[in-house]
From TrEMBL, chain A:
KW Ribosomal protein (keyword) present: yes
Region entry Disordered, spans: 46-81
Protein name: Large ribosomal subunit protein uL29m
Coiled coil location: none
Localization (cell): Mitochondrion
Highest taxon listed in the record's lineage: Eukaryota
GO BP terms: mitochondrial translation
GO molecular function: structural constituent of ribosome
Gene this protein is translated from: LOC117642893
Organism the protein comes from: Thrips palmi (Melon thrips)
Family: Belongs to the universal ribosomal protein uL29 family.
A GO CC term assigned to this protein in UniProt: mitochondrial large ribosomal subunit
From TrEMBL, chain B:
Domain of life: Eukaryota
Gene name of this polypeptide: LOC117644480
GO terms, molecular function: RNA binding; structural constituent of ribosome
One example of a Gene Ontology biological process annotation: translation
Record family assignment: Belongs to the universal ribosomal protein uL24 family.
Keyword line: Ribonucleoprotein, Ribosomal protein
SUPFAM superfamilies: Translation proteins SH3-like domain
UniProt keyword annotation of Signal present: no
Name this polypeptide is given: Large ribosomal subunit protein uL24m
InterPro entries found in the cross-reference section: KOW, Rib_uL2_dom2, Ribosomal_uL24, Ribosomal_uL24_C, Ribosomal_uL24_CS, Ribosomal_uL24_KOW, Translation_prot_SH3-like_sf
A Pfam match: ribosomal_L24
One Gene Ontology cellular component: ribosome
The organism of origin for this protein: Thrips palmi (Melon thrips)
Positions of the KOW domain: 97-124
């Protein structure tokens, strides 16, 4: 959900507060911020804008006869059906909207299939509403930004529970989980790849398009050459990481001489911690 | 010779960067937010490449491997400041004993020997802030240099060396270890006297409410009355049961297909 189809703006993105950057203000140890002080002014301005918009609608209604009839028939206080797609009006003034936790798997397992089917559409509507609000608050601070994450988590949990039930049925009846199969395949370059299998109307040997897309592995000198170079690259990376880890451990010993050696050995199993602790770099009194 | 000397001089390697700081489970519990949200908020992800084979998985983020006094997911936190190019080394600890509301004795500084209550815990830096102790008085000045107020701000204390937990029996600092009671609860035990050090009620506190009983339910929240068991086990899949309810019958015979 994080990946938005935004064009690349370069360094401008850092200056703009996108919805992901508009995080909840810290209540603990938070200093006074200009946003909180300006809330009163914002409310006044909002109410003023609403009045002005209402006036505009009234004046336009007098000009056209159709609009007059609609305004007379539709009661003013009843909620508009399109309001479902936006935040409820009570939450407009709030800086922070607090909601409960997402649906856990244990809660969803209690519910019947038809209930889950209904709940899915409730969550889908909520997610749709939150996405529109995120688009509206694109250059502002959105209240309660974690709601979208909570809805998505509960949707994911719901899907998992449905899959669980279907799996139980298929394993009992057919002996297989009725899910999409995966397997490891060798690519043309000689590297292993996870392949998610797909449904086709013709067999593999006749499907030229598929064979072009996923070329099979053939023994070749160039492939061997590539693989040796690739392995060398990986090994060099491993060595460099080991040197970096050693330097980290040395600097830790310099700063905290009474550090837990066993814990360091568990976190860095490739290094010999006792040998490093006796070395000069670990024991020097000057802090880097 | 003097022209070649700078070429011969060995270039100094830059100081090694410490490993990336992870948000601890204690702060996650305090946050009461989804884990993915905390991850995204701490990193400050502004842009992420879309999924697809034509994109390299990459993200544009503002996190600089620094966690300070402010919460990592906070708006306009210190993580986003451009001045901080400093990333601290943190001593790895096997166990964590300090929680909110604990009675604690300061061992270092001008307030050494005094006891106070823990206000804030930051396990990412091994920091503890004790209320009213180990602080500094700062003056807030006008543009003209006129002092209009003073503020007392507490400074953090390093956990293993500068602060110690207090035994509730004799009110003296002790070493602590984790133990289990006969019922199987995990408790802190003082090494000197063997007395249990209980957790305070402030550990239940989260970013949004002081205790779960105080939480005010929203309109869209599901209440406890709605959480009844409606599931009845049947030998059908999810799709079959829904189709049965809606009156959909499937008579079509599927064509032969190949999976690869």
């Amino acid at each position: 959900m994080v990946s938005m189809p935004v064009k690349y703006f370069g360094t401008l993105l850092n200056a703009v507060s996108s919805p992901l950057r508009s995080f909840r203000p810290a209540l603990v140890n938070a200093k006074a911020r200009c946003i909180h002080t300006s809330s009163v002014w914002e409310k006044e301005s909002v109410s003023g804008d609403q009045k002005s918009t209402q006036d505009v609608t009234v004046t336009t209604a007098k000009d056209t006869s159709i609009a007059e009839t609609t305004s007379e028939t539709a009661p003013t206080d009843s909620p508009h059906p399109m309001d479902v797609f936006f935040e409820p009006k009570d939450n407009w003034d709030k800086l922070d909207i607090v909601v409960g936790r997402p649906w856990a798997k244990e809660d969803l397992r209690l519910k019947s299939n038809s209930d889950l089917h209904k709940l899915w559409y409730v969550l889908l509507k909520e997610r749709n509403m939150l996405l529109t609000m995120r688009e509206i608050f694109k250059f502002n601070i959105i209240p309660g930004p974690e709601r979208l994450y909570k809805v998505e988590e509960s949707m994911k949990n719901l899907e998992d529970v449905v899959r669980e039930r279907n799996k139980a049925y298929f394993e009992l009846e057919t002996g297989e989980s009725g899910e999409r199969k995966c397997k490891y395949e060798l690519t043309r370059i000689g590297l292993w790849r996870m392949h998610k299998m797909e449904q086709h109307t013709i067999p593999k040997r006749l499907n030229k398009k598929w064979l072009e897309k996923y070329p099979q592995y053939i023994e070749d000198d160039k492939v061997d050459e590539f693989l040796t170079l690739y392995k060398e690259k990986l090994l060099n990376k491993k060595k460099r990481n080991k040197v970096r880890d050693r330097m980290i451990v040395e600097s830790l010993f310099r700063r905290f001489p009474n550090v837990d050696k066993q814990l360091l050995q568990e976190t860095y199993p490739e290094l010999d911690i006792e040998e490093i602790s006796k070395s000069e770099k670990a024991s020097s009194p000057t802090v880097q | 010779m003097r022209f070649t000397l700078p070429l011969l001089a060995r270039r100094l390697r830059p100081p090694v960067a410490p490993p990336e700081i992870k948000v601890s489970e204690l702060t996650k519990k305090y946050a009461n937010l989804p884990e993915k949200y905390i991850e995204d908020a701490t990193r400050g992800v502004t842009y992420r490449t879309p999924r697809g084979i034509n994109y390299r998985p990459k993200e544009q983020r503002t996190f600089k491997n620094y966690v300070g006094l402010e919460r990592p997911w906070a708006f306009e936190s210190e993580n986003e400041k451009e001045d901080i190019n400093y990333s601290p080394f943190v001593e790895p600890l096997r166990h964590w004993f300090f929680f909110k509301g604990d009675r604690v004795q300061v061992l270092v500084g001008k307030d050494a020997g005094k006891q106070g209550l823990v206000e804030l815990v930051i396990p990412e830096r091994n920091w503890v802030i004790v209320g009213g102790l180990n602080g500094e008085v700062e003056s807030n000045k006008d543009e003209d240099g006129y002092i209009y107020s003073y503020a007392y701000t507490e400074r953090p204390l390093l956990v293993p060396s500068q602060v110690a937990l207090v035994d509730p029996g004799d009110l003296l600092p002790t070493e602590v270890e984790w133990g289990y009671t006969e019922t199987g609860d995990k408790v802190r035990v003082s090494v000197r006297t063997g007395r249990i050090i209980p957790l305070s009620k402030k550990t239940e506190e989260t970013h949004q409410y002081k205790s779960p009983a105080n939480y005010v339910e929203n309109e869209k929240d599901t209440t406890a009355a709605n959480m009844k068991v409606t599931f009845k086990p049947r030998l059908t899949t999810f799709e079959m049961e829904i189709a049965e309810e809606l009156g959909i019958t499937e008579d079509r015979i599927p064509k032969k297909t190949y999976w690869y």
